[in-house]
């Protein structure tokens, strides 16, 4: 309909990384067009983990962070999602936690093996916090 | 527009406000329970909490619609109406064809063009076999 998002547009490069390293999530790529210092993938991840790990994060910051993160052309690493889910717990917001899982599944687009990998990596956190995945709640079907 | 709006968008997972703002007492007590450990919540309660905050799930947002049938159907109806208009126009609006379009005139015209050797190398007259008086 009115959706015009181009997801994982550099999918050629993504899948190269994917198959070479076996079963790892696609890496982030941040390019500064002014030719300054490039942020590495680890720096990007660390920055986002720090953002969500803020002890007194508020609901607005959680929403802003997640909406921005989903706007990037990448699927976030499990450690970023882990921090985001814990932030949801601090805010007593189970619905947003489930929504985040739905969003990253959608972000994976045609790459159907990313989401199971993410769930596998997040399983300890999800069990600890008591979050049910959309599949467990039957919300992945129409 | 100046108020926070709810919007289901695939690229905006967490909208500005929850779907249900006005909570009745059952919803409020559920929200209180949400402050405790989530392992204590049943599946139905978790689904209820999701539905309080969000309208459509992602699969519901991505559900296919039947809009294309309306579009294609409407297109054909417009073509049909246009066809009728064109037909009426041909019958009632256009003046009679010039006399130079008639069969006899066209035949004489072609013969004249061949006699004049129009485009004899690669064009019109080149296609005519002058010896056998027929098209090549």
TrEMBL record, chain A:
A GO cellular component annotation here is:
mitochondrial inner membrane
The superkingdom of the source organism is: Eukaryota
Q: Which GO molecular function terms does the record list?
A: metal ion binding
> Topology versus the membrane, per the UniProt entry?
Peripheral membrane protein
| Main subcellular location | mitochondrion
* Swiss-Prot/TrEMBL keywords: Acetylation, Heme, Iron, Membrane, Metal-binding, Mitochondrion, Mitochondrion inner membrane, Phosphoprotein, Transit peptide, Ubl conjugation
Q: In which pathway does it act?
A: Energy metabolism; oxidative phosphorylation
* Location(s), subcellular: Mitochondrion inner membrane
- Which is a GO BP term held by this UniProt record? mitochondrial electron transport, cytochrome c to oxygen
Q: How does it assemble?
A: Component of the cytochrome c oxidase (complex IV, CIV), a multisubunit enzyme composed of a catalytic core of 3 subunits and several supernumerary subunits. The complex exists as a monomer or a dimer and forms supercomplexes (SCs) in the inner mitochondrial membrane with ubiquinol-cytochrome c oxidoreductase (cytochrome b-c1 complex, complex III, CIII).
Family that this chain belongs to? Belongs to the cytochrome c oxidase subunit 5A family.
- State what this protein does: Component of the cytochrome c oxidase, the last enzyme in the mitochondrial electron transport chain which drives oxidative phosphorylation. The respiratory chain contains 3 multisubunit complexes succinate dehydrogenase (complex II, CII), ubiquinol-cytochrome c oxidoreductase (cytochrome b-c1 complex, complex III, CIII) and cytochrome c oxidase (complex IV, CIV), that cooperate to transfer electrons derived from NADH and succinate to molecular oxygen, creating an electrochemical gradient over the inner membrane that drives transmembrane transport and the ATP synthase.
Q: What is this protein called?
A: Cytochrome c oxidase subunit 5A, mitochondrial
Q: Which gene encodes it?
A: LOC120066456
TrEMBL record, chain B:
> Which spans are transmembrane here?
70-88
Q: Does the keyword Ligase apply?
A: no
Pfam families in UniProt: COX4
Asked if the Swiss-Prot or TrEMBL record annotates the protein with the keyword Disulfide bond, the reply is: no
Q: Which InterPro entries match?
A: Cyt_c_oxidase_su4, Cyt_c_oxidase_su4_fam, Cyt_c_oxidase_su4_sf
Q: How does it sit in the membrane?
A: Single-pass membrane protein
Q: According to the UniProt entry, which residue ranges have a biased composition of type Basic and acidic residues?
A: 17-35
Q: Name one GO cellular component term.
A: mitochondrial inner membrane
Q: Which family does it belong to?
A: Belongs to the cytochrome c oxidase IV family.
PANTHER family per the UniProt record, alphabetical: CYTOCHROME C OXIDASE SUBUNIT 4 (PTHR10707:SF15), CYTOCHROME C OXIDASE SUBUNIT IV (PTHR10707)
| Oligomeric and partner information | Component of the cytochrome c oxidase (complex IV, CIV), a multisubunit enzyme composed of 14 subunits. The complex is composed of a catalytic core of 3 subunits MT-CO1, MT-CO2 and MT-CO3, encoded in the mitochondrial DNA, and 11 supernumerary subunits COX4I, COX5A, COX5B, COX6A, COX6B, COX6C, COX7A, COX7B, COX7C, COX8 and NDUFA4, which are encoded in the nuclear genome.
Question: By what name is this protein known?
Answer: Cytochrome c oxidase subunit 4
> Lineage of the source organism?
Eukaryota, Metazoa, Chordata, Craniata, Vertebrata
């Amino acid at each position: 309909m009115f959706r015009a998002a181009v997801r994982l547009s550099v999918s050629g490069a993504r899948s190269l990384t994917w198959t070479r390293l076996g079963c790892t999530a696609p890496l982030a790529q941040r390019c500064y067009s002014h030719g300054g210092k490039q942020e590495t993938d680890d720096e990007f991840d660390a920055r986002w983990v720090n953002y969500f790990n803020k002890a007194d994060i508020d609901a607005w910051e959680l929403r802003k962070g997640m909406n921005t993160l989903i706007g990037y052309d990448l699927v976030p690493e499990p450690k970023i999602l882990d921090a985001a889910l814990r932030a949801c717990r601090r805010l007593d917001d189970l619905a947003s936690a489930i929504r985040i899982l739905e969003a990253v599944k959608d972000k994976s687009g045609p790459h159907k093996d990313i989401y199971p990998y993410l769930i596998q990596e997040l399983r300890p956190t999800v069990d600890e916090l008591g979050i049910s995945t959309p599949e467990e709640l039957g919300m992945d079907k129409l | 527009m100046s108020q926070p709006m709810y919007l289901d968008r695939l690229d905006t997972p967490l909208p500005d406000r929850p779907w249900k703002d006005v909570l009745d007492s059952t919803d409020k007590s559920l929200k209180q329970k949400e402050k405790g450990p989530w392992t204590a919540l049943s599946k139905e309660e978790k689904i209820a909490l999701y539905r309080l905050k969000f309208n459509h799930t992602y699969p519901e947002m991505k559900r296919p619609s039947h809009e294309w049938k309306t579009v294609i159907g409407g297109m054909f109806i417009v073509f049909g109406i246009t066809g009728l208009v064109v037909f009426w126009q041909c019958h009632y609006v256009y003046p009679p064809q010039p006399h130079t379009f008639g069969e006899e005139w066209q035949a004489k015209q072609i013969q004249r063009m061949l006699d004049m050797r129009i485009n004899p190398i690669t064009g019109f007259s080149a296609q005519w076999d002058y010896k056998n008086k027929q098209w090549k």
